[in-house]
Design a protein that fits this description.
Layout lengths: L9 E5 L3 H11 L12 E6 L1 H14 L5 E5 L8 E2 L6 H7 L1 E5 L2 E7 L4 E6 L2 E6 L5 E7 L2 E9 L1 E5 L7 H4 L11 E7 L10 E4 L4 E6 L6 E5 L2 E3 L2 E8 L5 E5 L5 H8 L4
Parallel strand pairs: 1-2, 2-3, 3-4, 3-18
Antiparallel strand pairs: 5-18, 6-7, 6-17, 8-11, 8-15, 9-10, 9-14, 11-12, 12-13, 14-17, 15-16
C-alpha cells in the first residue's frame, strides 16, 4: 500500500505523444501537481520507454520517488490502465509497491576509458560490424566460457526479462525471484548453449576477445558505449526503485501471464 505517499505532493510527467499530452491536460485540470524535485511520488504518462526514461532521470538526479505509470503508449508492460481523473487518488492509495534494483554496469573501453551506467531492463553487448563477437564470460571470478562466438550477449533483470531478453529466447523471471537471465544473442559457438539463470548476487564480467578486429558496444537500457574491452555487472542495491501497480494488474501477474500468451 502507499500509506507514506503524500497525495498533495504528486508530480506529473508525460511523453510528447498527443495521447499523453491530452491525458496530462485532463489530469492538470483536476489536480495540482508539484515539480518532481519536491514530489513524494510521480505519475508517469506514456509507454514503457518513457517510464524507463523517467526512472533513469530520477537516478541521474539522485531523487528517486515511487512511480505510478498510466499507459498512453503501446505495450504498457510497466504501466497501469489510464482511466482519467476519476478515482485516481483512490487508485494510488490502493496501489501495490514493487521494489526493483537496477544493474550497475562498469564498461572499460579499448582506450582505457571507464563508463558507469545503470540498467533497469538489461545490459547488452552487441557486435558493431559484420564480424561476430568473441566474448569471454566470467562469473564471480571464475571463467565459465572462454569464448562465446555470437552476435552479442545480454543480462536481464526480472523487470526486463520480458523485453529484449524474451526476444532472444531468454527465460521469463518472476519479479521476486532474485535472479538474473544471462542470454546469448544468435550464438554460433558453443552452438547449443542457450544461456543461464543466475543468482542476483552474481558478479558478471565480459571480456572482448580480438576487440580491434571484432569491436563490441555495451548498452545499458538506452545508453550505449562503443568499442568496449571489458564489462563488469552487479546489482546496485543502493539505487533501488519503486513502481506502483493497481491490484490485479501488478508486474508479477503480468510476468506470469506472459508465459501463457499464445
Amino acid at each position: 500500500m502507499t500509506g507514506d505517499i503524500d497525495v498533495k505532493r504528486l508530480a506529473l510527467v508525460a511523453s510528447r505523444t498527443d495521447r499523453a499530452q491530452e491525458a496530462a491536460a485532463e489530469l492538470r485540470s483536476a489536480f495540482n501537481f508539484v515539480p518532481l524535485s519536491r514530489a513524494r511520488a510521480v505519475i508517469v504518462l506514456g509507454g514503457d520507454g518513457f517510464m524507463l526514461h523517467t526512472l533513469h532521470r530520477m537516478l541521474d538526479k539522485d531523487r528517486v520517488v515511487p512511480a505510478y505509470g498510466l499507459n498512453c503508449g503501446t505495450v504498457g508492460f510497466l504501466m497501469n490502465k489510464y482511466r482519467g481523473p476519476a478515482r485516481l487518488i483512490d487508485r494510488l492509495a490502493k496501489a501495490r509497491r514493487f521494489d526493483i534494483a537496477p544493474l550497475r554496469m562498469r564498461a572499460i573501453g579499448n582506450d582505457g576509458s571507464e563508463h558507469i551506467a545503470c540498467a533497469i531492463n538489461e545490459v547488452s553487448l552487441l557486435r558493431e560490424t559484420r564480424q561476430t563477437a568473441k566474448i569471454e564470460v566470467t562469473l564471480d571470478g571464475k571463467t565459465r566460457l572462454k569464448e562465446l562466438v555470437c552476435d552479442g550477449v545480454l543480462v536481464a533483470t526480472p523487470a526486463g526479462s520480458t523485453a529484449y531478453n524474451l526476444s532472444a529466447n531468454g527465460p521469463i523471471l518472476p519479479l521476486d525471484s532474485q535472479l538474473l537471465a544471462l542470454t546469448p544473442i544468435s550464438p554460433f559457438r558453443p552452438r547449443r548453449w542457450s544461456g543461464a539463470v543466475l543468482a542476483e548476487r552474481s558478479r558478471i564480467t565480459f571480456r572482448v576477445n580480438e576487440p580491434a578486429k571484432r569491436p563490441v558496444s555495451a548498452v545499458a537500457d538506452q545508453k550505449e558505449f562503443r568499442d568496449v574491452a571489458e564489462v563488469h555487472l552487479e546489482i546496485a542495491r543502493e539505487n533501488q526503485l519503486t513502481l506502483l501497480f493497481d491490484p490485479g494488474h501488478a508486474l508479477d501477474e503480468r510476468i506470469v501471464a506472459e508465459q501463457f500468451a499464445v
